[in-house]
Amino acid sequence: MASFVRLSSVCHRGVKPLFARNTFLARELFACRTFREKDSMQVQVHASSHSAASSKAASLHWTGERLLSVLLLGMVPAAYMYPGPVVDYTVAAALTLHGHWGIGQILTDYVHGETKIKLANAGLYTLSMVTFAGLCYFNYKDVGICKAIAMLWRI
Amino acid sequence: MALLLRSIARPGLYVSRSQFGVLYRHAVPMGTTAKEEMNKFWAKNTRLNRPMSPHITIYSWSIPMMMSITHRGTGVGLSGGISLFAVAALVLPGNYPYYLDLIHSLSFGPQFLAFSKFALAFPVTYHTCNGIRHLMWDTGKGFKIPEVYRSGYVVMALSVLSSIGLACL
User: Fold this and answer.
1) Residue B77, domain CATH
2) Which 19-58 residues of chain A touch chain B by CB within 8 A?
3) Mean pLDDT value across residues A3-9
4) Of A54, A66, A113, which is closest to B42 when you measure between CB atoms?
5) Rounded to an integer, what distance in angstroms lies between the CA atom of residue B80 and that of residue B28?
6) Which of A7, A53, A96, A131 is least surrounded by CB atoms within 10 angstroms?
7) Is residue B64 within 8 Å of B151, Cβ to Cβ?
8) Where does a ubiquinone bind (chain A) (predicted)?
9) Closest CA to A42 of B34, B46, B16, B73
């Protein structure tokens, strides 16, 4: 990965190098000199929203994740105060999506290699679809999520 | 050094756009995305068959580390439980009250029931409380190390207390 350090932040500042090795010093001096001379020393950066070619998909995904988390948090008092089909289906959707995105992050962290990533994500999609279908079926045919928790707790 | 070589190799890309702001007057966007860079890293290391550098086996565990992986663990556990429940709803023959009566007929003692409720509630309360802690970090607050530890203790205390409270209901 390219370094984000601006050479000007270490050059011409009278910063004493920690290591008095000649090679280190020489490289530093060379780099500083080049910076001054060319005045076009380029610092490689990951330009986020400024580059025309980049997409905002990842950033929007991140925001979506946080918004969904807040929504799910709001579902807790909502389920307590207004149990019923509206909350049941909203919880089913929010819970499944939150879990889907969460596991997605875990796969991104630990699974590497193009085919493995594709397989893992395909498996995740299947799991999430089945989960959502199952929860909706439960809401429709059976007692529903809110009632189910209430009944379980009264056992 | 790599920085130097890269800049020399790309003379035509020099740009000084005001969009980048004063700080990045001499900045040039990289040709690859972060995702591509990460994939390149893994591809190279797998190709060279390099062993994984020891990390969790040698690094001293800290409270923030443990809380973080517990957050992930409870997330996976809860997600798995929900999926299991959903599949059961689709596959099993009877309806929910039927299975509840089945459990009821097993006549577990009140302490066992209270403990089971605690065991069910704790992952939910922990994940929720730590989730709120995460959301606070997302607003940019609470990153100083003493703050991290303090909020961690608060989360642990709240999770345990609310789980006990719920188990008593």
Assistant:
1) 1.20.1300.10
2) 27, 30-31, 34, 40-47, 50-51, 53-54
3) 48
4) A113
5) 44
6) A53
7) no
8) 110
9) B16
**Any chain B CB within 8 A of the CB of A121?**
no
Give the angle A25-A27-A33 at the CA atoms, nearest 5°: 100
Per-residue burial over B35-54, b = 16 or more CB atoms within 10 Å of its CB, e = otherwise: eeeebeeeeeeeeeeeeeee
Rounded CA separation A6/B20 (Å) = 14
Judge contact between B26 and A40, C-beta under 8 A: yes
Average pLDDT rounded to a whole number, residues A22-33:
48
B112, part of any domain: yes
| B131 touching A (Cβ < 8 Å) | yes
B106 located within any domain: yes
Using the beta-carbon criterion (under 8 Å), do B96 and A54 form an inter-chain contact? no
- And the tokens for A45? 């950066």
pLDDT digits 0-9 by tens, B119-162: 999 999 999 999 999 999 999 999 999 999 999 999 999 999 99
Q: Which of B7, B97, B138 sits opposite A66 (nearest CB)?
A: B138
Write the ipTM.
Answer: 0.80
What's the pLDDT tens digit per position in A52-105? 557 888 899 999 999 999 999 999 999 999 999 999 999 999 999 999 999 999
- Which residue range is the domain that position B133 belongs to? 63-168
Residue A54, φ and ψ in degrees, nearest 5? -80, 155
Residue A21 pLDDT level (bands cut at 50, 70, 90) = very low
Which residue ranges make up each domain of chain A?
3-45, 51-154
- pLDDT for residue A20: 46
% of chain A with per-residue pLDDT over 90? 61
Domain count, chain B: 1
Confirm or reject CATH 1.10.3720.10 for domain A51-154, answering yes or no: no
